[in-house]
Design a protein that fits this description.
Helices cover 72% and strands 6% of the residues. The protein is mostly helical. A hairpin with a 3-residue loop joins strand 2 and strand 3. The longest helix has 39 residues, at 148-186.
């Protein structure tokens, strides 16, 4: 298999798996796993910081990530308001996320990535042809740069999930306290 196709053979199934997992988390009861949510918050914060480092090369990329994160946080809080908490006998404490917001964000990200790929594919082919004719050891410019709009969409996801998972942790604690008070009031007084 040619080397330029090998990266696609690896990346396409990996991206498909990530999208499948993301979409499956948008429907039905999801168990609350505090440690995983804290890990996700840390991972999304690290991703946001690493993407902001792209601003050292091009400030527009950092502005895109930051603008997306700022816009994603209120969207995460809206998603949190539309989330319901329940107790499942088998799964324990669960939450039911609003599927529309998750589906909208997934469609936005996939649409932007597909558009970016379609726009860049001819440029990548041209750069590959130039690289084939260039002397060995020389660098050939690729003819494209990263897009601030793509960084804005990724920043939107980062801001959304940091706000959403943080809010889930806070609301879950409140839900636990309310449930404990409710069961305490319902239980007959023991003398």
């Amino acid at each position: 298999m040619p080397s330029h196709l090998m990266s696609y053979a690896i990346m396409v199934p990996l991206v498909a798996l990530m999208v499948w997992r993301r979409v499956s988390r948008q429907f039905g009861r999801q168990p609350i796993r505090r440690k995983r949510m804290i890990a996700r918050i840390a991972i999304f914060a690290a991703i946001g910081c690493l993407l902001m480092l792209g601003g050292l090369h091009d400030i527009r990329l950092a502005e895109g990530v930051l603008g997306g994160a700022v816009a994603g946080a209120p969207l995460g809080l809206l998603g949190l308001r539309l989330t319901r908490f329940e107790t499942d006998p088998a799964k324990g404490d669960c939450y039911l996320p609003n599927p529309w917001i998750g589906a909208l964000l997934t469609a936005l990200l996939l649409g932007r990535l597909a558009w970016r790929f379609l726009v860049l594919w001819p440029q990548m082919q041209q750069a590959q042809a130039l690289a084939a004719g260039a002397p060995a050891g020389s660098m050939v410019p690729m003819g494209y740069q990263s897009s601030p709009l793509t960084m804005l969409v990724i920043g939107l996801l980062v801001g959304y999930y940091i706000a959403y998972y943080s809010g889930l942790l806070v609301h879950h604690r409140r839900f636990q306290r309310a449930s404990a008070l409710k069961t305490k009031e319902e239980a007959p007084a023991v003398r």
